[in-house]
Design a protein that fits this description.
This protein has two helices and nine strands; from the N terminus they run αββββαβββββ. It is of the alpha+beta class and 164 residues long. It has one domain: Lipocalin, CATH 2.40.128. An eight-stranded antiparallel barrel has the order 1-3-4-5-6-7-8-9. Strand 8 and strand 9 form a beta hairpin. The longest helix has 23 residues.
Length: 164
């Protein structure tokens, strides 16, 4: 009976230790990622650049799945006045249309290759408080995913490389 009791206790300790180890395991995509491409997938399968020829971006993911993502079109014009408050309509449009930024939490479904972004705040206010599922592929240090289709049917694709 004592042996059975000891085995039960050992089993409970091992179970708790395994649970704690799983809970403390770092988020699989944790790290810093630099943008490689921000393209659009067309219905015919062709791709074009969505944020210009040389987009810039940074995706930061911590060990708990909290993230911050920014994408910028490099060709955004400077504000002629040098004052953001006195920009022209065209300058404001270029600034908004040339930027994608949001943060929140990220979950991964490895079985369906789906990322689930729970967006806490975004430069595009309509995304705040939403969840977005994105099909992803991970090949070594390269992560790519498809953003939900736009109303025109085009599908944005983001490609990131882990910064070492």
């Amino acid at each position: 009976m004592k042996l059975l009791s000891k085995l039960f206790c050992l089993s409970a300790v091992l179970s708790i230790s395994a649970s704690q180890a799983a809970a403390e395991a770092p988020f699989p995509l944790a790290g810093s990622w630099t943008l490689v491409a921000a393209d659009l997938l067309h219905p015919d399968g062709s791709r074009t650049h969505d944020y210009g020829e040389a987009p810039k971006g940074l995706l930061l993911i911590d060990s708990h799945g909290r993230y911050s993502a920014q994408i910028y079109k490099s060709e955004r014009p400077l504000f002629a006045s040098g004052d953001k408050k006195t920009g022209t309509a065209a300058e404001f449009e270029a600034a908004v249309m040339g930027t994608s930024a949001h943060f929140g939490t990220l979950a991964i479904d490895t079985m369906t290759h789906t990322l689930v972004y729970s967006i806490e705040s975004s430069a595009y206010k309509n995304w705040e408080g939403t969840q977005q599922k994105r099909m992803y592929e991970l090949h070594g240090d390269e992560l790519s995913y498809q953003v939900p289709p736009r109303p025109d049917g085009l599908i944005p694709i983001s490609v990131w490389r882990r910064i070492k």
